[in-house]
């Protein structure tokens, strides 16, 4: 229960921080796709933690989903690593997150000789959310919502 409360706090404090920081740096006419991506990281984390709570009695699912939840929120830490190739592009950050996810999935699949459904669906969620968040972030619907959120 304490872990679930802490995860909820991560989502609430994270969303609040993203929105407050967005308000400080908001400039009309600038792209708000980055805001969509940042909030999507929290959404993916929340979905994975929610699934973890649902599967808390099935340790083989629970452990794998918790690992993916932790990896899913590594992007802010990775992009702060002071290496030029990481700072150069957000795509490098995506690739490093995807590499971490695929490494976890690969090691587990080789060890158990099959892809576990928790890793399959969780990895798909993380990897698919990255480009989808930027695609959604470029829509007029998101622009109106994000402008309302930041003003």
Q: Which band does the percent of strand residues land in?
A: under 5%
Cα separation of the termini = 36 Å
User: Gyration radius, to the nearest Å?
Assistant: 17 Å
Count of DSSP-assigned helices: 8
Largest sheet: none
| Succession of helices and strands | HHHHHHHH
Round the mean pLDDT to the nearest integer and report it.
Answer: 90
Backbone shape: globular
The helix fraction, in percent, is over 70%
Sheet/helix structural class:
mainly alpha
Low-confidence sequence ranges: none
For the secondary structure, the number of strands is 0
Overall description:
The protein has a domain of 100 residues. The N and C termini lie far apart (36 Å). The chain contains eight helices and no strands. It is mostly helical and 151 residues long. The radius of gyration is 17 Å and the shape is globular.
Summarize the structure.
This protein has helices at 2-25, 33-54, 59-72, 75-78, 84-87, 90-112, 117-137, 140-150. The chain has 151 residues and is mainly α.
Write the layout of secondary structure elements.
Elements: H1 2-25, H2 33-54, H3 59-72, H4 75-78, H5 84-87, H6 90-112, H7 117-137, H8 140-150
Key descriptive features of the protein:
151 residues, mainly alpha, 8 helices, 0% strand
